[in-house]
Each structure stands twice: as C-alpha cells, then as structure tokens.
Amino acid sequence: MQAVGVRALQDTEVGCLAEVYLGRQEEKSEQTKAKLLAAAHDLLVEEGYHRTSTAAVCRRAGIARGTMLHHYPNKDALVIAAMEDNMTRQATAFMKTIRFDKGTTIKEIIYDVFDVMCGRSFIAGIEIAIASRTEPALGKMYGVAMDRFEEQIAWIVKMTFPKWQVDYDKLRCVTGLVMRSLVGLAMDVVILNRSREDAQVYLDMLLHWIQLDNAEMGKGRGCK
C-alpha cells in the first residue's frame, strides 16, 4: 500500500514537472514567434516584399532558419502572419480607446482607423497587396487576412452603435465601403506624400455620407 502511495506521489511530481516544462516551452515558442514577426514586419516596411527574405528575417530576429521553418513553412506564411499579428494588436488597442459607457462617435472611429492606416503597419500591408498581384498563393492568404480584419472592425462598430445591430449585413457592407475608401485616402498620404489636410476634405465627405446612411438604418434598406 505504501509503495502504491509513493508511486502515485512520484507520478504526480513527474506530471507537475512536465506541465512546467511544457509551459516554459510554449512561452519560449511564443517569444520566438514574436521576434520573427517583428523582424518580418520591419523588413517589409524598410526593404519591401521582394527584398525581404527569410534569411534576412532570421538574422534580424537572431533566430536560426530551421527554427523559423518550424513555425512558418515559407516566406509568404511568415509575412502574412506578421501583418495579421500587427492588425490584431491594432484592433485590440483600438478597442481600448472606445468609450462604450460615454459614447464614442462615428467621427472618432473613422479618424482613429485612418490614423492607423497612415502608419508603418499600413506600408507593410501595401507591400503584400502589391506582391499579391503576381503571387497567387500570397494573394489568397492576404485576402483571408483582410477579411478577418474587416470583420474585427465591423464587430467593433456593431458593439459601439447598438442600433446598427438590426441589419448586420448592411453594417458589413457599409464597413467594407468605408474601409476601402480609407485605404485609398491612406495611399494618397503614404505613397503619394499628399498632406493629411488634403485627405481631410474627403474624410468629411465620407462622414457626411455615413451620417445620412445612419439615419436610414433600421428601415430595412439593406445593402444589396
């Protein structure tokens, strides 16, 4: 009986040690991926898609290429993961700025999203979008990633403005149109070096249209 008890105790100790070991390995794995994603994102911004290689990413991250391949099988998987990771962190940070109790305005959301699109992360996305034209596999992954990001933004808008929940299909449609408009304006600023003041005129027109459409929300006029 005593031997059985000792064996059970030993098994428990081994199990606990295994859990600790696996926990540390998982933590180490997440740290490795974070370094790779940060390095890939920075290189996309600084060098562009075609000059960003897995070897360069590994050098900057200080990670062996074999380790990188364990997490990301190829360059496309790595750069898409880097873009998605950045967009997810932006959406999370954006959520923290919304005042659900005091009332965040449509204007504030539009301006906040536009500010994000005029930053470094948007440049990385542009590089991937342009490369997708001649890289079909990359294009498919990019499309899925952008759909997920747009869904995140639509959910944020839905939670911020409860009355828009009556027609979620229309909300998705409006969100998609607004996001595509903001992408175009951001490209003017980021690529063509046009001023934010130039974009302001179009942002105001976009806001005016949204406010008009908002007045129609709930009347069953879905976006077809």
TrEMBL record:
**Keywords assigned by UniProt, alphabetized:** DNA-binding, Transcription, Transcription regulation
Q: Which GO terms describe its molecular function?
A: DNA-binding transcription factor activity; transcription cis-regulatory region binding
| Residue ranges constituting the HTH tetR-type domain according to the UniProt record | 30-90
Annotated membrane-spanning segments are none
- Name the SUPFAM superfamilies on file: Homeodomain-like (SSF46689)
Q: Name one Pfam family in it.
A: TetR_N
The record's listing under InterPro entries reads: Homeodomain-like_sf, HTH-type_TetR-like_transc_reg, HTH_TetR
Q: Which residues bind DNA?
A: 53-72
**Name assigned to this protein:** HTH tetR-type domain-containing protein
UniProt source species? Veronia pacifica
